[in-house]
Amino acid sequence: MSGFLAGLCVAVLPLLAAGFWLGRRTARPENLGGLGTPVEHATFETLHTASLAAPPLRAGLTGETARKSARRLRTLLGTDALCLTDQDTVLAWDGLGEHHRTEIMERLGSPLETGRGEAFRLKCDEPDCSLRWAVVAPLTVDDRVHGALVACAPRESAVLVRAAGEVARWVSVQLELADLDQSRTRLIEAEIKALRAQISPHFIFNSLAVIASFVRTDPERARELLLEFADFTRYSFRRHGDFTTLADELHAIDHYLALVRARFGDRLSVTLQIAPEVLPVALPFLCLQPLVENAVKHGLEGKTEKSHISITAQDAGAEALVVIEDNGTGMDPDRLRRILAGEVSPSGGIGLSNVDDRLRQVYGDEYGLVIETAVGAGMKITARLPKYQPGVHSAGPLPRE
User: Fold this and answer.
1) Per mean pLDDT, which of 72-76, 118-122, 265-269 is the most reliable?
2) Rounded to an integer, what distance in angstroms lies between the CA atom of residue 93 and that of residue 101?
């Protein structure tokens, strides 16, 4: 869907450029600056102006985003005034004649209801106001009208009608992309909630049982473990953005492993090798801890001898390479494939399918988990994390309460 929308934007921009040139060629002297023909110059200006207007619109249609983009959109049309509205009010007005706000909202009933644009004559008693005509172009997303783009000019113009429609269509594409971004964010949030629900009861029960076992025999040890438990659960249930840093995720893992080692004692050993330069890398929240919990489960399940887990994070140029490996019971590769495909219950692999899906959604299909395993041969999980990905930014350290 997003590829189709991007193609639609590319197809619409030349039309906008032509309308821009026709509307502006008589409004100011031409100064091409060596950029070629007037149409080529107008195309360059249109692309540049559209690139400046797009980022605010990708956040949705609000008063703030409308205000930030209105001037750029008016430049695209070369008109005297332009406003953006939602269903109820004018969100932003740029240019002359702002006293027409009320009149325009009164005339938007039919366009907002039908989704069809129209043009009408403005009534004005202001002697200094040059605006006499308004062109309304609805803004639609998934066949729902979210608002309107209204261009105002001194005279009726067929070119303005066509250009306003094309600009409104381009704005609608940006709003649809914003809607897709928000849907993706909601999906990630839902998956984080599902992951918390999947891990937390198992972890909380065992952790509290371990802490309780030390209350009488070693109160100071019980206190230390209770603090580890509090810090880990506070991190796990935080509401502070969809992304965190590798340093924060590893810190939470350290709290988790402290509780696990208290439970299993010498049966479990852990080795960490972390390159300092990858600690600031941003990654999806609660992305690595489920992999470590999976390693603990498979490293200790059905074994009486000592188990070992290694966690490494290496600098790999444009990426951070995180590897979590255990010497446990492993898993049948076909069963693992079915777990990752969602065909069977993930009870044998806590969080694996969830983490794999989230990595692919955030970074692309080439960044899914790479898992090497066989029955009795342990498991090695590799996650590649790009050091930079548009939209992936840590919200910063978790605020202290």
Assistant:
1) 118-122
2) 8
